Amino acid sequence: MEIRVLRYFLTVAREQNITRAAENLHMTQPTLSRQLAALEDDLGVKLFTRTGRKIRLTEEGILLKRRALEILELEEKTVHELRKREEHIEGSVTVGCGEFGAVESLAEICRSYREKYPGVQIRLHTATADVIQDMMNQGLVDIGLFMEPVDTSEFEYIRLPEAEPWVVIMRPDDPMAEKDVIIKEDLMDKAIILPERLNVQSELANWFGRDFEMMNAAFVANLATNAAVMAKNGLAYPITIEGAMKFWREDLLVNRKLYPQLISYSVLAWRRNIPYSAAARKFIEEINAFRA
Questions:
Q1: Rounded distance between C-alpha atoms, residue 283 and residue 270, angstroms
Q2: Percent helix, strand and coil across the chain, each rounded to 5?
């Protein structure tokens, strides 16, 4: 006996009429009649007596109706319990990310995810893209938020909408703070702090052109926070993305955009074709829903 056929049987038992039952089930009357006949053949009993257009249950039909209702109730309960079990997800998801404005989109995804799965802990690991990618390859990070350029050949990913303008960071009393934008000539005689990632340095090298080799790269920093301390103490000028200093105090440090403008975008990525925990799978679903 199939659950589907039991539903047909119960519909006929309720309607006591093949034509009305077939209409309710959105099928033809001959098809429904064949299904009922096959059910009687399978069980080896007669389930209905037909008097004109009206159909009545035999004693065996009454027994099957009682059992069919119990079976369908059990099926509904089982499906509900399985779905509830699926929704009740615990564990943790580790997200590796840098310091940039696209973390705002990550926060939106996390908010939606936490509303659905409050039993899951989200672990945020702040590092550069190279470190995060290594940790993903080792299985230590589930999801990576990378600033481009980044190699995505082994990833599934979405590109986030935030445009990240590159800026120069300085003290508010610095003479360059009076400028609206910073051009490369403003930096030629200054000590600067470059980002550690080589492919990001390449983006800056393209912006500076042939003058890049003459720049005084006094520091290299993997993240902007410690670079900002150097800037606050007047040691050098960090070149970073604007989102990296969104929550810093403007009475201590300010930023000015590069001109011509240099912009980067970010991707939220996960490794392709590997097994994930239920918590991580649901997080990936949330990412894809955010893209949609």
A1: 10
A2: 50, 25, 30
